[in-house]
UniProtKB/TrEMBL annotation:
This is tRNA pseudouridine synthase A. The keyword Chloroplast does not apply. It comes from the Bacteria. Homodimer. GO terms for biological process: tRNA pseudouridine synthesis. Formation of pseudouridine at positions 38, 39 and 40 in the anticodon stem and loop of transfer RNAs. SUPFAM superfamilies: Pseudouridine synthase. HAMAP family: TruA.
Length: 259
């Protein structure tokens, strides 16, 4: 029996989130567990680094499970992919230590959120991006992102995974970049609150459209009072990477800064 660490990618469009649900809703966890059972896995549940919401994508979700598999990890990855639907894929697999936990062992997570500014709808681009209009001022977006770095109480922008849990999080880096198809926020933190990234994106876009001042945005962060700001839609969000060492985080930051 060994514990396996697996990196998953999935298109969240047709999933009701990652976590398995009691009702017959289609979830990523349920599809992965069904694929594993078809190749002989008999455990009850898999572990995951995060529980993405309905419609949210991932290119770097990490899961773990115990399995008495007699072949190589690569063969296990191929067997899983042969039994997974087309919108879920194993991207990497390795044997982990026996007590590895993808959530509690993580040192940082990176999310990416993509927008594009067009007056007219574009169904293909809108599958993975939020169409924003009026257009945003890129300099204001970057200024809003700079307000996020450091350790803050983000109670205004999300809720903790457990009742009475801490809403303090440390954002290591946050910044927007220009892409051929629009703009992308990349944000890395030790952990995130529920809906935190989507609320921060919504407020950042308001600032970029000059509908909200940077001072008001900064005040909301500093006040740390639960509010009811809007949510950016889920389809622009991607769980891009989960880090398991500070060295890995530093190398990723260096690599990203070069883009």
């Amino acid at each position: 029996m060994a514990r396996y660490q697996v990196t998953l990618a999935y298109d969240g469009t047709h999933f009701y989130g990652f976590q398995r649900q009691e009702e017959r809703a289609r979830t990523v966890q349920a599809e992965v567990e069904a694929a594993l059972r078809r190749i002989g896995w008999q455990d009850r549940t898999i572990l995951a680094a995060g529980r993405t919401d309905t419609g949210v994508h991932a290119s770097g979700q990490v899961i773990a499970f115990d399995f008495d598999w007699r072949h190589s990890p690569e063969a296990l990855g191929r067997a899983m992919n042969s039994n997974l639907p087309s919108d879920v894929a194993v991207r990497a697999i390795a044997v982990a230590r026996d007590d590895f936990h993808p959530r509690y062992d993580a040192t940082a997570r990176t999310y990416r959120y993509q927008i594009f500014c067009e007056a007219e709808r574009d169904p293909l681009r809108e599958r993975y991006s939020w169409r924003v209009w009026p257009a945003v001022d890129c300099d204001l977006l970057q200024s809003a992102a700079r307000l996020l770095t450091g350790t803050h109480d983000f109670a205004a922008f999300g809720s903790p995974p457990r009742e009475q849990g801490s809403t303090i999080r440390t954002v290591y880096r946050a910044g927007w970049r220009m892409l051929a198809g629009g703009l992308q926020l990349e944000i890395t933190a030790n952990a995130f609150l529920y809906h935190m990234v989507r609320r921060l994106v919504f407020w950042s876009v308001l600032a970029g459209q000059r509908m909200l001042s940077l001072q008001a945005f900064e005040h909301a962060i500093e006040a740390a009072q639960p509010q009811t700001p809007g949510l950016a839609p889920p389809q622009g969000l991607n769980l891009y990477q989960v880090c398991y060492s500070l060295d890995g985080l530093k190398s990723e930051v260096t690599k990203s800064d070069e883009i």
